[in-house]
Each structure stands twice: as C-alpha cells, then as structure tokens.
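Supplementary Methods. Inverse-folding protocol.

Structures were first reduced to a discrete structure-token string of length 308. This string, shown here, constituted the complete conditioning input.
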C-alpha cells in the first residue's frame, strides 16, 4: 500500500477506483467497502484508493460540542497498520481544516476525484454525504459521473447492516472494557501503538520487563482502568503480557503499563504494538492501597498463566 500525505503524488494512479471517509477503527463494515473497492479495481486492471481525513471532521467542525469529547478508536499509525492488511493499493490522507470543510461537493469531485485521480469508479456507502453542508450524495455523484466519464456504485444498506456494527458501538464496548466484543466488531484485535516509556510510580521497579507506553495522540480511546491480557509486538518479536491501566492516585495522572512474560532486550523509546485480547480485572482491583509492587506483578503473572 502506498501512502500519500496530501494529493501531490497521486497523479500516477492507474484506473483509480475510489472511496472516501474517516474509517476510524477500520471495522468490519468498512472492510465490506474496501473489499468491494479491490474487486472493482481488479476488474478494470486498476488500483484501489481510499481518501481519508485527519483529524476527524467532527473535531474541526464541532470543537465545542460533538467533537469535544470524541475519542478515536485508531490513531493514524494504527489506522495505517490495519489498512495495509486489506489489500488496498493507495491511502490518501488529507488534512481536514476549516478551509477544507468549505469546499463544495462539486469542487471536491472536479478537483480531486476527476482532476487529480482521474477516477474511473467511485464507491460510496449507503446514505453517504460529503462536501460543504453535506450537499453531495450518491445521486449527485452519479449525475456528474455521466458528464465526466466515471461510474458510481453505492454499497447496499443490507450489505453493511448485515455486519451490525458501527464506530459508535465499538467506542461504547471499549469504554466499558468489553474488549472481546470490540474485537468482534472490528474483525481484528484492538491495538495501541506507541513508544515505550518508564512505567512510573507506583509500579516502576528494577524489573526490566515492566514498561510504560506513551500515547502520542490525546484523542486516542484507552480502555478503562483495569488489567488486560495482551500480546506485545516489536519488529518480528511478539510475546505474551499484561497491560494495566492504573487510575489516578493522589491526583496524579493514570499510568499505562505493561509487563512481558518473556525476557527481552531493553525496549525504552522503541515503538511497540499492544494487542488487547480480554479484560482480566476491572477498576475494583485498585480500590484502596495498591499492593506491594512485587506481589502485584507476581499475582498478575499467576493470573496470566491460567488464562493463556
């Protein structure tokens, strides 16, 4: 998959078959659209293109209302990682600004889809709107397509609704700590990608296999305080572990830490991917005083040995 930041390097796309959207989480419903995109591209010896936006449009359009508390299932790194596994040929990431939000649907079609990409086919999900004031839709696209030589296909509502999923449902499951339900909706394992950091108090210790992780995008949705069964991957290595989200103590920030169950080379400052499988304990585990660090980690290890 080739990644384009902006539209400057997209002129060489062959027989472009295009779709657009935020695709937060790249869940199973999104994958229905991408699968169809790839099939249609293959039919015309073309290349599939997904145009997505960063930050999420709601963050820009409604910063004090609907966008203020919106948490994202995927960071940009995580979205790219999942999309790379879908067979998509091109990912175009457009910075969504207030100025871009004022671009009309006709301008977007003529300047981007026709002008830059010379799209042969455009795929949209059912009930899809785009452009300034959401004035563009399937019928509008089809009308312009007849004038400028591209075809438009709408994914039927039934095809997506059969998957019975939405980004809202996934955010709700993650917020409740229901990792297994979220993973089923996503059709892949929920993840956090970030650089390794010190775990911080109260769990900082001499145990070289206990680390913290730094969240690079403040909008990233983190499961609630608790203990989670995870796998941790860096380079070609993937090992079992536990992730613990400790609630704030004495007014401090919450800690995000993980412990590996196999020895490793020091990981500090290296990017890792943490894959979440299930919640082991909830916030109630942290009520009262935290247990002694060593006893705490030993209890986690014993618990994990029973689970894996």
């Amino acid at each position: 998959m080739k990644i384009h930041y902006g539209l400057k390097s997209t002129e060489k796309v062959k027989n472009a078959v295009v779709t657009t959207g935020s695709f937060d989480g790249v869940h199973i419903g999104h994958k229905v659209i991408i699968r169809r995109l790839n099939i249609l591209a293959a039919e015309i010896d073309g290349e599939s293109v997904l145009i997505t936006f960063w930050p999420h449009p709601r963050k820009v359009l409604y910063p004090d209302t609907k966008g203020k508390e919106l948490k994202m299932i995927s960071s940009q790194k995580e979205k790219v990682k999942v999309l790379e596994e879908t067979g998509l040929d091109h990912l175009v990431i457009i910075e969504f600004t207030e100025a871009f939000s004022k671009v009309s649907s006709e301008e977007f079609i003529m300047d981007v889809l026709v002008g830059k990409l010379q799209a042969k086919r455009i795929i949209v999900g059912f009930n899809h709107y785009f452009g300034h004031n959401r004035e563009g839709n399937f019928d509008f696209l089809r009308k312009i397509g007849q004038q400028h030589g591209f075809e438009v296909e709408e994914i039927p509502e039934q095809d997506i609704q059969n998957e019975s999923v939405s980004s809202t449902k996934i955010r709700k499951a993650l917020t409740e700590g229901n990792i297994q339900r979220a993973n089923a909706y996503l059709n892949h394992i929920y993840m956090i990608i970030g650089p390794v950091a010190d775990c911080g108090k109260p769990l900082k210790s001499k145990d070289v296999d206990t680390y913290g992780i730094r969240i690079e995008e403040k909008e990233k949705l983190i499961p609630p305080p608790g203990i989670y069964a995870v796998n941790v991957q860096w380079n070609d290595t993937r090992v079992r572990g536990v992730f613990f989200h400790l609630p704030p103590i004495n007014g401090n920030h919450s800690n995000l830490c993980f412990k590996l169950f196999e020895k490793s080379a020091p990981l500090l400052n290296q990017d890792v991917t943490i894959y979440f499988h299930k919640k082991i304990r909830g916030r109630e585990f942290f009520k009262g005083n935290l247990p002694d660090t060593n006893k705490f980690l030993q209890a986690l290890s014993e618990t994990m040995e029973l689970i894996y």
